[in-house]
Amino acid sequence: MAILKIGDKAPDFSGLNQNGTVISSNDFRGKKLILYFYPKDNTPGCTAESCNLSDNYQMWLSKGYEVIGVSPDKVASHKKFADKFQFGFNLIADTETNILQAFGVWGEKSMYGRTYMGVLRTTFVINEDGIIEQIFDKVDTKDHTNQIIKALDIK
Fold it and tell me: What is the pLDDT of residues 34-72, one digit of tens each?
């Protein structure tokens, strides 16, 4: 599993979005990207994080950023989630965990004394050249937009 750091080239990725359309990292060459990995659609933390990014989506676009969410949920689950909250951005269904593993965010977790493999909630900010500018592994789900703005000193 990759251990990515700031300054690394982001791995290429490709997957189906909530509409069953193939979305690829090549589609975003020359654009800045907020790529966030989350555990599960329609759960409290994931909903808070996704809605916070969605509520600020037009601002992100105006600053030259595209937003993409990735989780191991299926396309149908993403469709329901995106429709319910009217997300304007893509959610990629990574059911085989290929993208999650490439970014090093599929790992061992524990809950109630039980260990299992799951998504390590992480956000990568990637520049126009495909280079990782920032990594958030302690995500403030309720205020993620401001967390990113402060770290990148976006005006």
Answer: 999 999 999 999 999 999 999 999 999 999 999 999 999
Per-chain mean pLDDT for the chain: 94
Give me the amino acid identity at 119.
V
Closest Cα partner for 135 from 110, 98, 103, 107? Answer: 103
Q: Which residue, 21, 59, 29, 26, is CA-closest to 145?
A: 59
- Fold (CATH) for 30-152: Glutaredoxin (3.40.30)
Per-domain residue ranges of the chain = 30-152
Burial string for 59-70 (b: 16+ CB within 10 Å, else e) reads: ebeeeebbbbbb
Contact between residue 69 and residue 47 where contact means Cβ atoms under 8 Å apart = no
Beta strand 32-37 pairing with 132-136: unpaired
Which amino acids are annotated catalytic? 46
| 75-85 vs 44-55: helix crossing angle, rounded to 10 | 60
